Amino acid sequence: MAEDNPLLSDRHVAFMLHEVLDAQSLCALPYFAEHSRETFDLFVGACAKLSREALLPAYKSMDEEAAHFEDGRVHTHPVMRELYPQMVELGMLTAVRPFDVDGQQMPLTVASSGFAYAMAANLSAFGFCMLTTGAAHLIESFGSETLKRDYMRKMYSGEWTGTMALTEPGAGSSLGDLRTRARPTEQGHYLIDGAKVFISGGDNSLSENIVHLALARIEGAPAGSRGISLFAVPRLRIQDGALVPNDVQAAGTFHKLGWRGIPSIALNFGDGGDCHGYLVGEPHKGLSYMFQMMNEARIHIGLHAVATAAVAYQESLEYARTRPQGRLPGMAADEPPVPIIQHPDVRRMLLRQKAIVEGGLALVLATARYADLSLHAVDDTQRERASAMLELLTPITKTFPSEKGFESNALAVQIHGGYGYTSEYLPEAWLRDQKLNSIHEGTTGIQSMDLLGRKVLKTGGASVTTLADEIEPSLERARSSAHLASHAGALETALARVREVSEQLLGTAMENPMAALSHSVDYLDMLATLVIGWQWLEMATAAQRGLNASPGDADALFYDGKLRAAAYWMRTELPRVAALADLCVSCEDSFSGMDPESF
Amino acid sequence: MKILVPVKRVCDPDNANKVKVSDDGSSVTSDGLEWKPNPFDEYAVEAGLRLNENAPKNEKLGETVVVSFGASDVVQTMRQTLAMGADRGILVQADDAELDSMVVARALKSLVDAEQPDLVLMGKQAVDGDSNAAGQMLAEMLGWPMATFAMNIATDDGGKTLTVGREVDTGVLTLKVTLPAVVTVDLRIVAPDAVSNGVTPADHKYNDGARYASLKGIMQAKKKKIDQKKLGDLGIDTGLTTTYPKFELPPARTGSCEFVETVDELVDKLHNEAKVL
Ligand SMILES: Cc1cc2nc3c(=O)[nH]c(=O)nc-3n(C[C@H](O)[C@H](O)[C@H](O)COP(=O)(O)OP(=O)(O)OC[C@H]3O[C@@H](n4cnc5c(N)ncnc54)[C@H](O)[C@@H]3O)c2cc1C
To answer: Which ligand 1 atom minimizes the distance to the CA of A440?
Structure first.
């Protein structure tokens, strides 16, 4: 069971990359010219192998023996000292980074497919990679040459780890309220003073040094988000060629629901008045720098969520195929029981998992492809268009897999029956892990306002028009297939309704912005349901193409599975768009109008 | 030293339950199965790389050449071993139906004659046919010393001989072989301290298992050479010695479990019902 779990279906990942997304076409862009289908497949294969053979087997004990705080330091699970160098060696830190920082310029679309296996196997273990590469990337993009030489290189090489130190007790969703101070000195560095919470990987026993990319306010800076700057704050700083303590103190770890293999800690900067921070980029631009990294980080969260749902789906699928229980109507009592996958309700749950997991992966990879094109397409208009799509899709890519993935993870528990509720089996652990994804990197509520407020209303609805333009060719392809025309029709109707609603909300926002935003989460749900429908239409079109080419038995079953999952989404989920649309424009006020005392 | 490592492409052993036999029983169908390097061959590549490197300094001490037989898409499997660190490859194009252990051994002999390696390092068997024969046949044809089922290898005498621990039913049998030689490896050859070459320090800690292809290695592998030859051009006898008249799947397991009271009853059931004694 668990130890044979494939994490994701290799066939499905190959289908996505080569039959749906045509990843190879990216190699025509100069930035990716060194790559080919061969490098793509080998990398994804190597990630799958390491994930199955090393990361997954370590998962349970990392979940059971969480990091602990002792003598002022956080002690992480010893197995991480073996796993981390292996992930680094494989290229998980630098796969997508440019050659000049020792990266390999792999498209995010492809790298994400490989990373998904690592996340599915062991979210916490991969978390160290993600944080380190994210922090190093900030220095790469905005830092001085000195910072790159002294800190970034050692992070990318895997010697030192990194963190993102944003959150404070009084500043979570609202980072503009953060209070950590930075006082300039004549030597050029800043003295940092403040307290951070929930800093993942903020202390650990797997690397010699830890570099925190921290947000702080320079003395005298304006209040709110316009007065926040970004600093590199190492645990040990380089002084006269040696590493010396930098007055960064772990204050304790949080005991948490999931992600137990990576500690989230409270961190104090400058208790002793000697914490040096090095300004990254220009003063007061910290939040805008963070926002430039945000798209990639949020795509990664969506991928975490897909991966966590995927591994649980594989587990429940295998369980359903092998757990004998009950008989079908008409069977005699002395006949042996059937495997539970024979029961229609179990198949309902499995198909729902499949639709969420594969639809979610398709969305994440499609978004990653827009990210690749937004940076590296040669044509200006193509880059701009990809950018617009990336902006619009990011909050959906972050949220759909997190919210629906949680439901999918709950179904994995359900399919395991009572056993699923016990810690002998892994589905309960994956359910716990999954919950974080709708919270960190901006909660679902925050994402929904980002989507409706910033991405739709602020663009005057232009982003929805771009989305419609992107969906149109998919509709066109599907309409010409007798099998898919009805799906295309359903999606077209839903799209038209979404455009209407967005238009109407623009009007509402002019008069009453609060009312326009009151159903932002429903708006996100509506758009996600539509966009996942689009992804399923794309997959169904590719599957139909595969079926038309008279495949062998195994492929024929594979493609049939895609068509059925697509039909499931179009028939059972897409109709929700209409109801959600009504809710959004009604500005219905049952909760928004409620007095806090009436609860 | 120069090491030749034959690598066979096999169906992913994790997919064994998906193996199907064609309707007329004449062949095993590979439809829908994924290809992997034969695990024992992958271990041989790992052992070869360890013999040929100064690990902490990341220095190469010799050339490791991989050899495969099969259709041209076997190149993908070969690239995996090049990405692990092997230096170049030779692909002998052939149909699977044209190959058996004897033909493979004859073909390898002709490649060994041309390449003159110091060592042929092979998996003890391929996990599809499980024949466990090609290595032994090759050593006989070459007239070279042979050690099969190696679980550890150490070079001595400045690389003139190898001390090989062989995994046998009664324990470990240690042999000293003079190079050039043929060595076939067993699973434990990839234990962290199974291979020593006198250069990599004894306290260097290898991971347990074959190394993973790194992305850097994958990018380099693209540029490594794979020589393609045709089986027919090797000038060897290509007549098959082994033929398979018919394939059938073992009967499906019923999965039922029964408790018996006595040993006699058990023996009786094994003999008369299961017919395995
Ligand atoms: C395990 C874990 C790891 C983490 N790792 C890191 C890390 O490495 N680095 C880091 O900097 N942070 C990290 N965080 C912090 C995380 O990003 C924050 O918890 C998150 O941003 C939410 O902030 P908060 O906890 O203060 O919640 P709050 O902001 O207090 O939110 C509470 C609730 O109120 C809602 N809410 C808040 N403001 C609004 C609003 N304006 N409109 C509507 N609803 C609103 C939210 O949606 C949420 O439901 C981590 C958190 C956890 C639990």
So the answer is: 17
